[in-house]
């Protein structure tokens, strides 16, 4: 069985299958913030979705981070390091990418265990 959450005409924000949670790419709601602010917003969205699925950030299996510009790598890492739980740091990939909205500085995709 597949459970889908916040289903829209183009995508669902989250799906759960066989005890694994798949999040859609999360982006900032308020794009006027700098990289730290946008990353914090994204991480808060991730926390909320994981809680809705009955899990949390200590159960992240993989994180994929897309940055508009790698110049923001250090600032994104500052927010990430404040958020991630010591001893539960997930495998992670970070790449520079052209994001769908020019105002977005970061997009994060998460896969986690329930």
Automatic annotation (TrEMBL):
Transmembrane segments: none
InterPro entries per the UniProt record, alphabetical: RidA_CS, RutC-like_sf, YjgF/YER057c/UK114, YoaB-like
Organism superkingdom: Bacteria
Pfam family, one: Ribonuc_L-PSP
Name under which the protein is recorded: Enamine deaminase RidA, house cleaning of reactive enamine intermediates, YjgF/YER057c/UK114 family
Family label: Belongs to the RutC family.
